[in-house]
Amino acid sequence: MLNKPEGEFRVLQGHPELSVGLAKAMESTNPYTVGCLSFEETDIPEKDKKAIMQRFEESFLAGLDAEQFNICWIEHTDKGRLELNFFVPNVELSTGKRLNLYYDRVDRHLAENFKKAINLEYDLTSPDDPQKRQTISIEKSYLRIQKML
Question: How many Å separate Cα 60 from the centre of its chain?
Fold first, then answer.
């Protein structure tokens, strides 16, 4: 997340070296979780970014105090849109036990609802807007045939 030219990323919260060190100390095949909150907007106010990051932590790390987990937030703007990237070592800090930030089968609805609530509350562009849908649909079987040719 930090392998970008100067000015295209910014650490918003946390300490990348500490987060990576915690992940490296894990004896696990999946020592960390990374993800991105991506916005069509090129920028949003700082107070809104901080509030969105806080809400994310409250939603996906519910029931944990700030001392029980480590998270690093890094902003990217290199793709012409705003991205809030997060890096979380998969360890609960007070016990040393594995921490699972997201389990798709269980948490997908949470992620969808979070996305919808944030976009609505902060008046952000929604990827679910009907006007953003493709007007042409190509059959998957046609694409497979084209690959074979």
Answer: 11
**d(C-alpha 33, C-alpha 9), whole Å:** 19
CA distance 122 to 115: 11
Instruction: For the chain, list residues with pLDDT below 50.
Output: none
**φ, ψ of residue 121 in degrees (nearest 5):** -65, -35
> Residues of 41-77 as b/e, b for ≥16 C-beta within 10 angstroms?
eeebeeebbeebbeebbeebbeeeeeeebbbbbbbbe
- Say how far apart CA 99 and CA 93 lie, in whole Å: 9
Residues 11 and 74 sit within 8 Å (Cβ to Cβ): yes
The token duo for 126 is 């929604």
CB 16 within 8 A of CB 32: no
